[in-house]
Design brief:
The complex is a heterodimer of chains A (about 400) and B (about 450). With about 400 residues, chain A is an all-beta fold. Chain A has two helices and 27 strands. The longest helix of chain A has 6 residues. Chain A has a seven-stranded mixed β-sheet with strand order 7-6-10-4-3-13-14, with no helix packed on it. Chain A has a six-stranded mixed β-sheet with strand order 20-17-16-23-26-25. In chain A, strands 2-1-5-9-8 form a five-stranded antiparallel β-sheet, with no helix packed on it. Chain B is mostly beta strands. Chain B is built from three helices and 28 strands. In chain B, strand 25 and strand 26 form a beta hairpin. The chains are: A mainly beta (about 400), B mainly beta (about 450). Chains A and B meet through strand 8 and strand 10 of A and strand 15, strand 18, strand 19, strand 21 and strand 22 of B.
């Protein structure tokens, strides 16, 4: 960070001219600059400067401090000038009894400048903080995740990426993005800087495989009953799992796999959404080719109730094969509202349904995402070293009730 | 103010009465002795009242008032002697067609010598606005509240050492001052300005102008606030110089250590699908405020992180806050508080059918819901949920719930630090031909 910049100037004016703004001024350098990026909507810059002030007298009046900028995207209405301390001996002490106070601020026409009228009870060197919002200085977040060879743990690094197109130089300014430590690493105008703000070396991760017929449809004309199986890493943002220090901000995650020989293989990338504490983040890895699932409707019977009211009994059959050399758990998402719409004019709201006998025993069925969106979790054994891969058959036998 | 010639607004005493209406006049230029600006923020309107010392001779006098390159409403210019009122009479006011932005007063005087007079008029181009800054402590428990008045002068006229008064409140105008200013001196249609406005102009503002010309306090302008009919007037102590093209911002409201409450609200119909954080306090004495209403303005909320600088928490447009009224500032969603709404099992029953062939035309639907509110903050939060339920609805919950209006349920609960609270509810709707009402009943 430069001590003075050609762009943002804080001038102590000897007097405020009546009309033309010809200035004779002292140039107090920046002592410190803080950039706050914790709220993604705003970027706040706070500068600390030592400003010599003259005591007020009836003849001389107050001090006039000119804050001006050129080519920088400063929000004029956001500028705050806060005297915080005065020098006493070699140290600064907090202000007492408004001994230094901003009387008013004037906005000259057609200038990127403000003139603060500052009262000082006695001549002093005042420590002031000038803060303002600045545009085109923003941040994003990025993640780099390296999975161990068994894909049970991730080494997760969180990066802050700051891009400065504001027109102002901030090299060396202290930066804080709401997470991690404050870093003396502000960028100059036109620069981007990428900073490591958090790392967790051993985050337990669960690799998930998901089959969702109604979202992805048939895999191909040749395989009309199969559909995509998508892979994700799921990790929980809590302390128990080595995270939980802050909500994970939205950002792009690049995922690598440790190849066990000192190298890494790139597995893919995904946008990670905001993940509050104690919630699960899911990183999409791509389509699994070694876990195959085929869905058929084995039985389909309408049971009239009265008039056009009926129940629909449906038996869904899933045939699953795991060609991986590791076990896997396949989550089958069944969108019952869309299934019911295949049979009748579904009334508004979620479908009414019940589980019938004949559903495969020992299958975990969760309705955490909603009653009409049950998820069946099926554990699959790895492919045998010899012999054929087992075809696992799962039956979901349900009654969709009160359709018409 | 002692400058004369550069000012576009000038008051000239015509020495040759017969010269009036000609292009060459021999005149004296009496100085402004004082000037007061009363600025309205609801309209582009400022009442300017200036006093001048003029020399009158016994008999008939003519005074020319001109306002080249300004935005003065010629129909509003008034002349009034402040001394020897019974001996000085305004005979007529003429707007010479050959001299736009001029008028000539004919005055009969029984006295000879120096007299103090007042000239008042409306101008446009001077505006004022408020903005606010709330600076919370690091723990977000109390705040320093500041309100600033910003006066901007685009009127074309320089007003030096002016007393500045700002009117808070809405007035009615039937014609815009800027439009009247462009009529170049033509008399206005019959005055149809609101009675309220006239009352304000004649009584309120003038009466309030009668005092206060103290020397500026060096340590800052005090802004005196006082009620005036249905309006509020902010008076800047001493005088201010506001040049054409400039703006000036002064502190008008100040309160330190203002305790505020933090509440999270989930109102999808109002604020969208995520809970939003509110800071709540009141414009009253308990909160160090209440000295005046708070005019419309933008409020920026910052948090001080001790030596680590400031953080922006949000900003919002504040609309007029009367004395004693609550102040509610929406800071937007907070990444550390979220709510997940999950539909549980649904059941349908009480079907109704029409005839031949029998078809379902009415039914009752029951759905169990869960709103799971997660607080990742290190301190307890208050959560308010408001939800609109359209139709013929019965609502039940084991958590205390009330009706906000005929179709909106409302509940409030506390969520522990790093905790989760679930709000369970059962919603029963009568649909189709079974719907008899458009309202929610709590069970």
């Amino acid at each position: 960070m430069r001590t003075t910049t050609p762009l943002l100037l804080l001038l102590l004016l000897s007097a405020l001219p009546a009309s033309a703004r010809v200035k004779l001024a002292a140039l107090p350098p920046r002592e410190r600059v803080e950039i706050q990026l914790d709220d993604g909507r705003y970027t706040l810059v706070e500068e600390e400067r030592i400003v010599p002030l003259l005591a007020w007298t009836p003849e001389a009046g107050n001090n006039h401090v000119d804050f001006s900028w050129a080519n920088a995207q400063v929000d004029k209405d956001s500028v705050l000038f806060r005297p915080v301390a005065v020098r006493e001996g070699d140290a600064f002490r907090p202000l007492k009894d408004e001994e230094v106070k901003v009387v008013n601020v004037a906005y000259p026409p057609n200038e990127n400048a403000l003139v603060f009228e500052v009262y000082a009870k006695q001549a002093c060197a005042a420590k002031v903080r000038v803060s303002y919002l600045i545009r085109n200085l923003g941040r994003t977040f990025a993640y780099r995740a390296v999975a161990d060879r068994d894909e049970r743990f991730l080494a997760l690094k969180t990066y802050l990426v700051i891009g400065n197109r504001s027109g102002e130089e901030f090299a060396g300014a202290r930066v804080w993005a709401g997470i991690g430590p404050r870093l003396d690493a502000g960028p100059d105008d036109g620069d981007d800087v990428r900073l490591l703000v958090d790392r967790a070396d051993r985050v337990p991760v669960r690799k998930t495989f998901t089959f969702d017929w109604y979202t992805h449809g048939p895999l191909s004309p040749e395989k009309p009953f199969a559909s995509k199986v998508l892979m994700h890493y799921a990790l929980r943002n809590d302390e128990k799992n080595g995270l939980g220090r802050f909500p994970l901000p939205p950002g792009k995650a690049r995922v690598f796999l440790d190849d066990g020989r000192g190298g890494e293989a790139f597995l893919g990338e995904d946008w990670v959404g905001l993940t509050p504490l104690d919630r699960e983040a899911r990183i999409f890895l791509g389509e699994a080719r070694d876990v195959v699932c085929m869905r058929t409707i084995e039985r389909n019977e309408r049971r009239p109730v009265e008039g056009n009211l009926f129940h629909q009994e449906v038996t869904l059959r899933y045939e699953i094969e795991n060609f991986r050399d590791k076990p896997a758990t396949l989550d089958i998402v069944e969108q019952l509202n869309r299934l019911a719409a295949d049979y009748g004019t579904r009334p508004p709201g979620d479908v009414e349904w019940e589980l019938l006998d004949g559903t495969t025993d020992g299958i975990a069925l969760s309705t955490d995402r909603g009653s009409a969106l049950p998820v069946l979790s099926v554990d699959l054994a790895p492919r045998p070293k010899e012999g054929a891969v087992e075809k696992r058959v799962v039956i979901l036998h349900i009654l969709l009730k009160n359709l018409w | 103010m002692r400058r004369i010639l550069p000012l576009p607004v000038a008051l000239l005493l015509l020495l040759a009465v017969t010269a009036a209406g000609k292009n060459v006049d021999l005149v004296t230029l009496p100085d402004r002795a004082s000037v007061q600006l009363t600025i309205y923020n609801s309209e582009d309107l400022t009442l300017v009242r200036e006093t001048r010392e003029i020399a009158l001779k016994r008999g008939r006098n003519q005074l020319q008032f001109s306002w080249a390159n300004t935005l003065i409403d010629p129909t509003s210019v008034e002349f009034r002697p402040l001394e020897k009122k019974g001996e000085i009479e305004l005979v007529d006011t003429r707007f010479p067609g050959s001299k736009p932005q001029h008028l000539v007063w004919t005055i009969d005087s029984q006295v000879e010598g120096q007299v103090k007079v007042e000239v008042s008029y409306f101008t446009s181009g001077i505006t004022w606005s408020m903005d606010y800054v709330a600076l919370t402590d690091a723990r977000e428990e109390s705040l320093a509240f500041r309100g600033y008045v910003r006066v901007s002068n685009g009127s074309g006229e320089e007003y030096e050492d002016a007393q500045v008064r700002l009117i808070v409140g809405r007035i009615n105008l039937v014609e815009k001052i800027a439009a009247l200013a462009q009529r170049r001196g033509l008399p206005s249609p019959p005055a149809e300005k609101s009675a309220l406005f006239n009352e304000l102009k004649k009584e309120g503002a003038r009466a309030a102008f009668a005092e206060a010309d103290a020397r500026d306090q060096a340590a800052g302008k005090e802004i005196v606030k006082e009620g005036l009919s249905e309006y509020f007037m902010f008076s800047v102590s001493g005088t201010e110089t506001i040049r054409h093209g400039w703006s000036k911002r002064m502190e008008a409201v100040r309160a330190d250590g203002v305790k505020f409450a933090t509440v999270y609200r989930l109102r999808e119909h109002q604020y969208g699908p995520r809970p939003v954080r509110f800071f709540l306090w009141k414009n009253d004495a308990e909160h160090g405020l209440g000295g005046s209403p708070l005019p419309d303005g933008r409020l920026r909320v910052l948090r001080t992180n001790a030596d680590e600088g400031l953080s922006v928490l949000g900003e919002e447009a504040v609309s007029y806050v009367p004395i004693q009224a609550p102040i509610e500032i929406n800071l937007g969603p907070d990444d550390r508080v979220d709510c997940e709404t999950v539909a549980g099992a649904t059941r349908r029953y009480d079907f109704r059918f029409d005839h031949r062939p029998a078809r379902v035309v009415g039914w009752t639907e029951e759905t169990k819901w869960q709103d799971r509110v997660r607080n990742s903050r290190g301190k307890e939060i208050v959560f308010e949920l408001q939800r609109v339920l359209d139709g013929d609805v019965e609502h039940a919950s084991e958590v205390a719930t009330r009706l906000f209006d005929y179709r909106t349920i409302e509940t409030r609960f506390v969520v522990a630090p790093r905790g989760e609270t679930t709000y369970p509810s059962t919603v029963v709707r009568r649909l189709g031909a079974s719907q008899r009402q458009q309202r929610v009943v709590l069970r």
